Amino acid sequence: MTPSQPAAGAVRAAHASPLTVDARGVSLTFHTRDGAVEALADVNLQISDGDFVSFIGPSGCGKTTLMRVIADLERPTKGTILVNGVSAEEARLKRQYGYIFQAPALYPWRTIERNVMLPLEIMGYPAGERRERMQRYLKLVNLSGFERKFPWQLSGGMQQRASIARALSFDPALLLMDEPFGALDEIVRDHLNEQLLRLWDQTGKTVVFVTHSIPEAVFLSTKIVVMSPRPGRIIDIIPCDFPRDRTLEIRETPEFIKIAQRVRSGLRSGHSYDE
Amino acid sequence: MTNSAVALPRANWRPTAWVGEHAPIFTVVAVLFVVWYLAAFLMNAPQVRDAFARNEVKYTFSELVAGTMEAKRPVVPAPHQVAIELYDSIFGYPLNSPRNLAYHAWVTLSATVVGFAIGAIFGILLAILIVHLRTLEKSLLPWIICSQMVPILAIAPIIIVVFGAIGIRGLFPKSIISAYLCFFPVAIGMVKGLTSPDPIQLDLMRTWSANKLQVLRKLRWPASIPFLFASLKVSVTISLVGAIVAELPTGAQAGIGARLLSGSYYGQTVQIWAALVCAAVIATVLIAMIDAIAKLTARHMGAAT
């Protein structure tokens, strides 16, 4: 990976893209006290290198579970999943992805800089490089100057940006983002979405993004995976071919509205029963 | 309350405000003293009355009150009697004299501190083991709980005798009894503390494929610090009680326990009360020290205050 080269994404797109995620027949059943819950049923999904893929669906549709399966935080009961060509577990052990949770989950006793450097400490980076990377990625998420603050001294949006810097710090090729901006207000959210797009465009990373906002999914993605609950399954995969350097204005275009309508009708068909 | 006092700029500090803020504390202390004096009067009145009757002396009420406040062997000594006894027994003799209360306090305090250190470290290690080996929780915890159900007064002489038989006397066996009592709250509190991190915080460690030692050092341990200090505050007083109890059944020559014992042999109630007050002061100081360390640590770890 050469994240410093702005053209990395463009170069990658020109080549035939290898698969970052390859899920075949993935099913996952949780055994709870109230009986078995089928969280995922026969999920097949291929994500190419450099894609920005959004999982969208109502709560309980298994989008977070699918992401946790990719991250090897859950094990499928059936089927196989390959991440970067190896098993999900091996990919996790090789630290090939960065996971961003719904909550920033910064460690409250660490300053922002020490939070960002935490994965680097764990992975055994030398102190000088830890500091250099921390400064680089805090600058990337516009948090320079907040190094010595503790998490509670920052707003929710700033905390989430710090958690993104933390996930980027060890430069994983794959970013898994579980409703990272779900708790933020819409103005902050639009802003962060734009920043995220820039970052994706500049670094050429593969991003998997869980959301339940249709405009967010259409605006960000190259591919939208529509899911439906009970059992959690994929009901539509929609390509979304806006240019990589898209801006918020594309939300007024007919193409945007057309894709949004297709997503909405997909979500409706998943809800064929009354609720 | 204390926080806002600290936050105030120095220039705004006014004695009246300080008194106002601490008024509840003064009120409680005043009420306690009134109750204590009242109790001293009521409890000692019969023996004073008897003494007057025995000598066939007529007495007024104020003479009766004065008598209850100055009794040689009161049932309940008055606060000023205890204060005078404390002063005399600390400053009236050289520091290394067995008649000096400070000497006895030092003997007990050193056993307390050593026992507290042993107990705290043992409790922390036990908690770390229990958290990492779930099977231990089921197999070990019942024994730990049982250990706390045995009356310490029954165990203490056994421990002293066993250690005495292998030639270990003095401070160490007492410390062991202290440790025996005080590891428990630390172990229970630390099991809670080490399992206190959010699932998300643990998941993060997993995504970075951190090993168990790293999870312990960088997540579980720092997350457990507030629990640790809460447990330490409980266990330091228990540790002091343990050291005093260890001195009781063994005929120890020195220590607050020995002082209590000799006081009760010779009917020196004032001496007993002075020793008790001394123990209470030691416990208060120990807790205040732990509190101060806890506050410093919290500030260092980014606490909001």
Helices and strands, with pairings:
The complex is a heterodimer of chains A (275) and B (305).
Chain A (H helix, E strand, L loop, with lengths): L7 H7 L4 E14 L2 E14 L3 E5 L6 H8 L7 E6 L2 E2 H6 L3 E4 L11 H11 L4 H14 L15 H13 L5 E5 L7 H18 L2 E6 L2 H7 L2 E6 L4 E7 L14 H17 L5
Parallel strand pairs in A: 3-8, 3-9, 6-7, 7-8
Antiparallel strand pairs in A: 1-2, 1-4, 4-5, 9-10
Helix pairs in contact in A: 4-5, 4-6, 5-6, 8-9
Chain B lengths: L1 H6 L7 H40 L6 H9 L9 H13 L9 H32 L1 H16 L2 H14 L5 H24 L4 H9 L4 H36 L8 H10 L3 H32 L5
What does this structure look like?
The complex is a heterodimer of chains A (275) and B (305). Chain A is of the alpha/beta class. Chain A is 37% helix and 25% strand. Chain A has nine helices and ten strands. In chain A, the strands form two sheets. In chain A, strands 6-7-8-3-9-10 form a six-stranded mixed sheet, sandwiched between helices. Chain A has a four-stranded antiparallel sheet with strand order 2-1-4-5. In chain A, a hairpin with a 4-residue loop joins strand 9 and strand 10. The termini of chain A are far apart. By secondary structure, chain B is mainly alpha-helical. Chain B has two domains: 75 residues, no CATH class; 200 residues, MetI-like fold (Orthogonal Bundle). In chain B, 79% of the residues lie in helices and 0% in strands. In chain B, helix 4 packs across helix 12 and helix 5 packs antiparallel against helix 10. Chain B starts with a helix and ends in a 5-residue tail after the last helix. The interface between A and B is medium-sized, with 26 and 20 residues.
